[in-house]
Amino acid sequence: MEHWLNKRASLTPNQIALEMEEESYTFYQLQQKVKTFAGQLGRFQIKGHIGILSDNSSEMVIAFWACTYLQLPVVFLNTRLAISEWQQQCTDADVEWILTSSRYLDHAEHLNLTVKTFFEVKKLSVYEPASVDEIDLHRVCSMMFTSGTTGRAKAVQHTFDNHWSSAVASSLNLGLLSNDKWLACLPLFHIGGLSILIKSVIYGMPVYLLEKFDTEKVHKAIMEDDVTILSVVAVTCSRLLERLDEGQYPASFRCMLLGGGPAPKPLLEKAQAKQVPIVQTYGMTETCSQIATLNEQDALRKQGSAGKSLFSASLKIIGENGECGAGQIGEIIVRGPYGIAWLLPSDY
């Protein structure tokens, strides 16, 4: 398949790809910046996996897409972890190189790895590496670690096919409008954040990128900057509804996609009273983002539910005696092109 960013830059070169508070890039401009960075990073002739340690930023976005041209699987590191945890994850994921923002350089230099900042790479002259203009859907694109709540954190590998299938399934569920703009304030080192970048390039849809969730900035983006979709968790959703007060979002605002756990009934009732569509969803790192979504009209009638599995995915709840009935507890079994991911290392 033709590289997604090349194809998008060819189809809609003047469409906004990435919008931030102070600047924005069209898809053509993003492609050019990405290819330049790939040429600069290519001077190091890196082999294997490369880690990215950064908060949300345009530099992080550019670095990620540049790595896809160099066929370097990106291992996303959670900025909230301790140095020892980064080191363990880099060892598990066979990372020898780290790209980071200046903010985390002092900490990253304690790792037993080669570390370069985005700024250092951007100062280099462009090398002509063997970059690719085709995507092999079966190649690994990115790697992220599970939360480790049930044991040691595991590295989940996402292929390009996983990302493609997830983006297609999401659009079949939510639909895709020509004026859509998805606000990304979830960390890009989590699958819920990264998936928005993937959708943007595949859909030709602008992303409004914030470094982190900020109630005032998100509220302004919805009210003044034409954001139509927003990914939230229950806490951030509650804060936004409080900020909205007696106001009303523009008619163009389509929904809040709420994940990270069930939404409390009072929150859903408040959202309904304010005419704010809440679409509850279920997903995880291992399923390459959302895999089940509840229709907005069923939010209160099916309170606590995450809805039905998305198109091309199958989902069952299995207990000791086989498939569970309604209200029974069991293990979630998933099948689908974006619900299958590999775990490293092999001895987990």
From TrEMBL:
<dbReference type="InterPro" id="IPR000873">
    <property type="entry name" value="AMP-dep_synth/lig_dom"/>
</dbReference>
<dbReference type="GO" id="GO:0016405">
    <property type="term" value="F:CoA-ligase activity"/>
</dbReference>
<dbReference type="Pfam" id="PF00501">
    <property type="entry name" value="AMP-binding"/>
</dbReference>
<keyword id="KW-0436">Ligase</keyword>
<protein>
    <submittedName>
        <fullName>O-succinylbenzoic acid-CoA ligase</fullName>
    </submittedName>
</protein>
<dbReference type="InterPro" id="IPR020845">
    <property type="entry name" value="AMP-binding_CS"/>
</dbReference>
<dbReference type="InterPro" id="IPR042099">
    <property type="entry name" value="ANL_N_sf"/>
</dbReference>
<feature type="domain" description="AMP-dependent synthetase/ligase">
    <location>
        <begin position="7"/>
        <end position="338"/>
    </location>
</feature>
<comment type="similarity">
    <text>Belongs to the ATP-dependent AMP-binding enzyme family.</text>
</comment>
